[in-house]
Amino acid sequence: MVLMALVPLHAFGARYDLPAPLYLFLIGAGAVVFISFLLVLRRPVARQQPAGDDVPPVPNVPSWPGWLMVVVAVVMVVGGLFGTQSTPDNIVVTAFWLVFWIAVPISVAVIGNYWPYISPLNVVARLFGTTPRMPWPGWLGYWPATILFFLFACGELVFNGVTTTPAGTAQVVLAYGIVNVVMAYLFGAETWLRRGEVFSVLFATWGRLGYFRLGAPGRRGFFGGLTRPFEASVSRLTFVLMLLVSVSFDGLLATPAWKDLVGRLPESLRPGSAGYTVLLVLVFAGMVLLIWALFAGFAAAVRAVGHLDQPLIEVVAGLIPSLVPIAFGYLLAHNFDYLAINGQLLLHQASDPFGMGLNLFGTVEYEPNRNLIPTAFVWYFEIVLIIGVHIAAVVLAHGYLGRVARTERQGRRAEWPWIAAMVGYTMTSLWLLAQPIVQEGVTG
Fold first, then answer.
1. How large is the average pLDDT for residues 44-55?
2. pTM more than 0.70
3. How does 335-373 read in b/e, with b if 16+ C-beta sit within 10 Å?
4. Is the Cβ–Cβ distance between 406 and 412 less than 8 Å?
């Protein structure tokens, strides 16, 4: 077996020398989004309010695909605990943190929420949670799913020295399987899956983007599930905002500014120390609070300028669906190169999933090509993608404000603060994405 070097998490290929200063790309992207806003501003809006549950009931479907996935999960746990602990040579880490944590959400956001039809968590929850033993407290809301998402994101980004080893990943999967059983037993499968089970809530959220509704409310077509507001609760809206924050936080850690800051910290706060781990958790939590403050502030401005009758929390809940395409665009753009590079590990791992000396498909000697996709292509793909999803956000916000404002004129006035947020976020997103892959300068 070839001994492969570990491909770093979110690895990138060679840096790309920009043909013009970065600020010109940022200004140009912001200008395109602003022009799209001017074009959308006069677009007529249907005043009918959309209906449907935020997270719809989990469909009762044939259970054999879920049980098949249970078998796969058990094999993965055993292989992670007892197979080789060389990360590139054990499929468990790649299968969970690359395929399940990143590739599956992207596919759900494109296709629709197919997860309930294959989820091993659903069939196990229904096995143990046929009858609720206690009611779900109203104050609990979506906090279990929100906290669990925060912990999984920290597992990928903060505690990855442990959680992204084969044994560490297997322990994460096993521990969450136990949590799923206990919570379904206490609160019943249906309530737990709709409000507490993190992946059911996560994929129901991403599924609003997908082309097919697959039993969920909304019209067929891309973004068809985003005309409905989210539940106007702090727990649910925090969950959705963390889709943005988790990727932005990962992008922040890749910036030269962050690395320069870390280099100035005392030894007790340097990478590898317990202090640094605590610092990262605090920065992540701080970014959640910051983005809440920013978008709540813009929503308050929208409400004031448009003289909207809805309470502020409902205005936030109505506007936040327009942020989901942005979260998807950033998720795909940020991980595009990572999926292309680290995804190649699957070719090696398929022949010998747990490092047992096999060569089932003759690909055990394959090593990832770090320059499979030219960095210039990645950069321009990211520009087009980020601009596109921000334009989609402008259209969705226009539809919401046109429905809830008293008059069309007030609805149009209400859009101006939000477009300021969209232009600013477009430029910020591209700046973060540019940091690890491009360098300024003029080629000649």
1. 68
2. yes
3. bbbbbbbbbbbbebbebbbbbeeeeeeeebebebebeeb
4. no
